[in-house]
């Protein structure tokens, strides 16, 4: 018989050491050891299944959190577009009835864009150039 090596060898040696000397009871002893081994294997299978499920939940949570992230250049672009939209709407409100500009609407149109908050102006210009 080929001699086993590895973690199972220890369990086999322990079972042999604990085996009764009477051959009548040795079969019962080894069946008992086998039943214990199957119970342990099943417990490990359940534990592995739980760990795999937990890992899958963590991966989904990580993917969800990453989906909420917005690149800085995109955030800055949206911020600049919102500021331009607010200026346009404010200027439109103070114009005369037929859309004739007034001094106030002209002054509102001349208000510069806000300085970039989330990225540099070069990054923002580069992003806008890529879209064109």
Give the percentage of residues in beta strands. under 5%
Helix/strand order, N-terminal first: HHHHH
Straight-line distance between termini = 76 Å
Mean pLDDT reading: 83
Number of strands: 0
Describe this protein's structure.
The chain is an all-alpha fold and 132 residues long. It has 2 domains: 9-67, no CATH class; 72-131. Helices cover 74% and strands 0% of the residues. It has helices at residues 7-18, 23-67, 72-94, 103-109, 121-131.
Features of the shown structure:
rod-shaped; single chain; mainly alpha; 132 residues
Draw up the topology in text:
Blueprint: H1 7-18, H2 23-67, H3 72-94, H4 103-109, H5 121-131
Helix pairs in contact: 3-4, 3-5
Task: Describe the structure concisely.
This protein is an all-alpha fold.
């Amino acid at each position: 018989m080929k001699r086993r090596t590895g973690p199972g060898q220890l369990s086999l040696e322990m079972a042999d050491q604990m085996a009764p000397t009477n051959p009548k009871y040795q079969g019962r002893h080894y069946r008992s050891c086998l039943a214990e081994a199957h119970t342990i294997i099943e417990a490990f299978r359940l534990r592995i299944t739980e760990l795999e499920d937990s890992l899958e939940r963590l991966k989904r949570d990580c993917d969800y959190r990453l989906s909420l992230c917005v690149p800085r250049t995109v955030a800055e672009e949206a911020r600049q577009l919102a500021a331009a939209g607010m200026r346009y709407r404010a200027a439109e409100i103070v114009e005369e009835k037929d859309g004739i500009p007034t001094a106030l609407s002209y002054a509102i149109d001349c208000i510069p864009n806000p300085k970039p908050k989330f990225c540099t102006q070069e990054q923002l210009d580069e992003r806008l150039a890529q879209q064109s």
